[in-house]
Amino acid sequence: MEMHARKSRAILLIVAVALATGALVTALGISHIAARQVDADLAASTVNSVTVVPRPVESATGMTFPDDAEERARSLDLVAEVGRRLDISGSASATVTRDVLGEGDPVSVTVAGATSGYVPAVGGTLSGDQAWLLDTDEDIVCVGPAAAEALGIPVTANPTGLSLRIDGKLYDVVGFVTSGDVNLDSVVFVPYSHALAVVGSDDEASLRVLTHPGGGVPVAHTIRSVIRPDAPERLRASSVVDVSDLRAGVTTQMDRLAAGIGALLLVLTILLIANAMIVSVMSRTAEIGVRRALGASRSAVASLFLIEGGAVGFLGGLTGSALAVVSLLAVSLVHEWSAVMNPVVIGLGPLVGVVAGLVSSLYPAFRAAGIEPALAVRSD
Question: How confident is the model at residue 360, as a pLDDT?
Answer without folding.
Answer: 82
